[in-house]
Amino acid sequence: MIIDDQHYDVIIVGTGAGGGTLAQKLAPTGQRILILERGGTMALEEQNRADVDVFKKERYHAPEQWYDQAGEPFSPQTNYAVGGNTKIYAASLMRMRDRDFTAVPHQEGIAPEWPFQYADLEPYYTAAEQLYQVHGDAQNDPTEPPRSSDYPYPAIAHEPLMQPLVEAITKQDLHPTSLPLSLTRQEDDPTGDSEVFGINLALKHHNVTLKTSAKVIGLHTNTAGTEIKGVQAEVGEQSFLFSADIVVLACGAVNSAALLLASANEQHPHGLANRSDQVGRNLMKQQLTVLVERFASENSGTFPRSVSVNDYYWGYGDYPYPMGHIENSGGLLQDVIFAESPPLLSVLAQILPGSRLKGLAIHSVGWWAQTGMLPDANNRVYWKKGKLRYEFEPNNFEAHDRLVYRWIEVLKAVEKDVKEAQSNTVFPRGEAPLQVVGYQSGTCRMGTDPATSVLNIHCRTHAIDNLYVVDSSFFPSCAAVGPALTVMANALRVGDHLIDRLKV
Fold first, then answer.
1. What's this model's pTM, rounded to 2 decimal places?
2. Fold adopted by 2-503
3. Which pLDDT band holds residue 341 (cuts at 50, 70, 90)?
4. 257-270 per-residue burial string, b: 16 or more CB within 10 A, e: under 16
5. Contact between 338 and 344 (Cβ < 8 Å)
6. Domain extents in the chain
7. Secondary structure of 177-225 in the HEC alphabet?
């Protein structure tokens, strides 16, 4: 093993929404920062692209296998590259609603309260929207939480195909809203991500070092088990040991927990920071269903997402529990989930050749229905005989089914009002399969009680003073909107804490 002769102030493991954002935040301080990224840079022609030609090629799947509760292997749809999963996400960046931070009753239980509230994170939401150049318009959303400022950029215009749909949805006393999107405004690569707005900005500072193809395999503590003294990584063909005053994990909810568990030692026999037995537990991700609406007219297949509907976010009619969030998928030929998983047209995709599948896609509009889940300690990741086990059973079915069926009724009404829509069609639906792990959260939950949580309010582990986690692992609950913007905002919040700590 090669011991690096440079001692850093901060080591950040991972470059996604949490790690990339934090690196950008800390870079101007002048502190010596080392960023370790398992992957390399992603080619422009591959990033944020999907088409029928990559279907079944698993371009966006990790080069490894995880194992489900039956012990069967699968390839997770996660991305190892500079920018992490933000290189293949849809760039829709929504704030959690203010009530999402409170104890929220659901039909199957209560989503726990967060140790801080929306008002505490709101300034950082605003800062994250500015950093990621979010384009949006919140005026028409009935669930939009209080804002200290408008979006920094105006919402993009709807695709001509979508405009009559928006008008038809509005006629049903609903409030379709422009979906907030991170955009670079660059023609060759329009989608904003944490490489563009995080890592690239951080690397403009000479005190920041990025090492790619650096897979962290272990964290080593002092003899008392109270501090991380070394970060072991495989860089190419060699093994290195790096040291820093502060170590921050941002590997994603599964891999951060897996690394903590794999780093067990005499002082932490069940994994680092795991005296509560909560590391790896409470794995959550949204229930995701895609509904495909057939059209008589043809579309490009590559237009961006632009529509959000939150009228059912907190329930509907006599159902007083949260149901969730609706957004359009954009053109089906650019949707990574379509190309990879795929729930979109999954049955047809298995039997149709690529040319016919493409023809079907350009006559379709997709809609995502998203519902939050409740934490469950039995949903977890852990190691068994050297294999990473991923045991997950979704919950909150009734709420999600109500959202899906309600949206089908909306689409049926839209068909009657929009001549371009094909009448009397069946709306194919597909559920996101197990390998879709992009929205995962909760495996190192944050809380005030070390007996029931892994991280404190600053996302520092209760047990190890210089170890932090800033990916979506920290989530105590899972809302209906995607976690990316909340991860970015929280990374900025934790960044302020670390800046104060580094001044001492």
1. 0.94
2. FAD/NAD(P)-binding domain (3.50.50)
3. very low
4. bbbbbbbeeeebee
5. yes
6. 2-503
7. EECCEEECCCCCCCECCCHHHHHHHHCCCCCEEEECCEEEEEEEECCCC
